Amino acid sequence: MGNFSNVILVLDKVGYSRLQEAMNEATEDVQKLFGEFCNERRVEPGTGMAIIYWQGIKWYWSEPEFKFVEAFLEDLEDEQYLFIRLGEDGDLDTRGGLYDNPFQPKVVSKIQFNRIGEVHGTGA
User: Fold this and answer.
1) Distance from C-alpha of 121 to C-alpha of 54, rounded to nearest angstrom
2) Is 5-96 CATH 3.30.450?
């Protein structure tokens, strides 16, 4: 079992270039994480910024491929990336400061409930 997360990583042009360089030395598991295991990977033509998105992934910082991500992020300046991980229980991990980016990722909270047996009165 385990907890699943949705994760977004936004990189500026320099950060994305450094990621591509790091992939040359990365293990097969890390390459899979950034390749076949991500749900979306896109580069914005005008800015060169990139977004990488994983949906429903078991993201455990103790695992080697995620330790790679953590070490990679620690080597970047805060303004070069934005990392957001939202767990299924609402736990939130946000790192970096690249808020001004064309993708504008954000976490949205809402309350939902089922309307069972709704009663409408006449107000009499």
Assistant:
1) 47
2) no
